[in-house]
Amino acid sequence: MLLEFLSHAIAFDLAWIASLILGNLHWVFAIGAFVIIAEKGKKPIWHFLLIMGFLYAFLDVMELGGWILAPLIVLVPIQFFIILYFPEGSWPQRNFVKIVTVLFFALSFIHTFYFRLPWG
């Protein structure tokens, strides 16, 4: 989705960008409210664009692996929980990359051997 958005942004296709935004207003307002509350109103537009870019890039990478809904259902909420719930310097914050890596490989294993193979 990120690559598709970037191609339309480079081509200055405002009609497509407007239809994307207007077709997903519930996500725009939900993530916008989340950003304003989480960042206490500091640079909300910049942080909104960063979150949306990361989410779109993550979905692009997951679609390359054959996943469609698994990252939205499992991995992204866990990452937000680890980043936002635990205070700075706590064990989950210090080991964030390790936790996400282990979760990714565990979910990949489950997805491959349970959902893709004929006996799963």
Describe this structure in words.
The protein has 120 residues and is an all-alpha fold. It folds into two domains: 1-64, no CATH class; 68-120, no CATH class. Helix content is 79%, strand content 0%. It has seven helices and no strands. The protein has helices at 2-10, 14-23, 25-38, 44-64, 70-85, 91-94, 96-116. The longest helix has 21 residues, at 44-64.
Highlighted features:
120 residues; mainly alpha; 2 domains
Structure at a glance:
By secondary structure, this protein is mainly α. Helix content is 79%, strand content 0%. The model has no long low-confidence stretch (mean pLDDT 76).
Overall structural class, as computed from helix and strand content, comes to mainly alpha
Classify the beta-strand content into a percent band.
under 5%
Overall mean confidence score, pLDDT: 76
Write down the overall geometry: flat
| Low-pLDDT ranges | none
Query: How would you sum up the major sheet?
Result: none
Fraction of residues in H or I helices: over 70%
Order of helices and strands: HHHHHHH
Q: If helices are DSSP runs of H or I spanning 4 or more residues, what is the number of helices?
A: 7
Number of domains: 2
Oligomer class: single chain
Could you tell me the radius of gyration in angstroms?
A: 17 Å
Total beta strand runs: 0
Distance between the termini: 29 Å
Tell me the layout of helices and strands.
Layout lengths: L1 H9 L3 H10 L1 H14 L5 H21 L5 H16 L5 H4 L1 H21 L4
Helix pairs in contact: 3-4, 4-5, 5-7
